[in-house]
């Protein structure tokens, strides 16, 4: 299978991400309560609602420009740590995709890597620091490993599944970055909200390709 991903996929990804943030808004707020300030669900829901409005207004015609628009909107509308982090992720992915109308498996892996690298460049977190990097890093590794036969859906499924496991794996970790790090050892025993929202966003990417 060498069918690529196009603008329809990108728009559907954004729409399904917005749906997921609305659906899981309260859950993400609850995850951010014990180790943060209870605003992650609110931030993400508001941000993706703004992205949806902007997309409907501008009607981008290629995946790269669509993700760039999402990035700019998230950066301007989402306060807190997550806005600039996700914004940088989408911006780097958009730059990797450029103006190509179609994304094959190799380009997809490159874009996912660029997104993860953007988060790391912006937030300086390493794997194991109990952040969204702990969802994105296994996702990127799994995506690269699944890209061999060129099936973009397999790549996205692998990324989503790895991100879900990565989010669960943040539970015992002690936070070393972001607000949760103020709690030190008391941050252990709670799942990182940004890792969980990342898993939802990567699952949305996989669903959008079906
Ligand atoms: P804030 O922490 O400002 O309230 P949010 O609650 O929206 O912002 O987002 C918190 C999430 O941001 C965390 O769960 C974590 O995944 C992510 N995060 C915070 N700091 C960093 C960082 N330096 N690098 C990567 N991710 C981070
Ligand atoms: Mg917060």
Q: How would you describe this structure in keywords?
A:
binds adenosine-5'-diphosphate, 210 residues, mainly alpha, globular, binds magnesium ion, 9 helices, 0% strand, Serine Threonine Protein Phosphatase 5, Tetratricopeptide repeat
Description:
The protein has 210 residues and is mostly helical. It has nine helices and no strands. It has one domain: Serine Threonine Protein Phosphatase 5, Tetratricopeptide repeat (Alpha Horseshoe). Helix 2 (25-35) packs antiparallel against helix 9 (193-208). It is globular. The model has no long low-confidence stretch (mean pLDDT 97). Residues 32, 36-37, 39-40, 80, 179 line the site of magnesium ion.
Could you give a quick summary of the protein structure above?
The chain is mainly α and 210 residues long. The chain contains nine helices and no strands.
Topology:
Elements: H1 7-23, H2 25-35, H3 40-58, H4 63-77, H5 82-97, H6 105-123, H7 133-146, H8 152-169, H9 193-208
The protein binds adenosine-5'-diphosphate and magnesium ion.
Q: Could you give a short account of the major beta sheet?
A: none
The count of DSSP E runs of length 2 or more, i.e. the number of strands, is 0
Indicate the structural class.
Answer: mainly alpha
Strand content of the residues, in percent? under 5%
Give the overall pLDDT as a whole number: 97
Report the span from N to C terminus.
Answer: 13 Å
Gross CATH architecture: Alpha Horseshoe
The CATH superfamily title: DhaL domain
- DSSP helical segment count: 9
Bound ligands, named by name, code or SMILES: adenosine-5'-diphosphate, magnesium ion
* Overall number of domains: 1
Instruction: Give start-end ranges of low-pLDDT stretches.
Output: none
């Amino acid at each position: 299978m060498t069918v690529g991903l196009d603008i329809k996929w990108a728009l559907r990804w954004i729409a399904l991400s917005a749906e997921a943030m609305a659906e899981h808004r309260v859950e993400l707020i609850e995850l951010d309560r014990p180790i943060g300030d209870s605003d992650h669900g609110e931030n993400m829901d508001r941000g993706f609602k703004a992205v949806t409005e902007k997309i409907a207004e501008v009607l981008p015609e290629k995946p790269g420009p669509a993700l760039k628009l999402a990035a700019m909107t998230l950066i301007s509308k989402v306060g807190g740590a997550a806005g600039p982090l996700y914004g940088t992720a989408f911006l780097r992915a958009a730059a990797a995709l450029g103006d190509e109308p179609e994304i094959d498996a190799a380009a997809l892996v490159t874009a996912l890597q660029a997104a993860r690298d953007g988060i790391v460049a912006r937030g300086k977190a390493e794997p194991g620091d109990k952040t969204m990097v702990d969802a994105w890093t296994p996702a990127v590794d799994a995506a690269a490993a699944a890209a061999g036969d060129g099936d973009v859906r397999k790549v996205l499924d692998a990324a989503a599944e790895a991100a879900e496991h990565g989010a669960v794996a943040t539970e015992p970790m002690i936070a070393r970055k972001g607000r949760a790090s103020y709690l030190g050892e008391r941050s252990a025993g709670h799942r990182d909200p940004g890792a969980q929202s990342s898993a939802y966003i990567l699952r949305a990417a996989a669903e959008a390709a079906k």
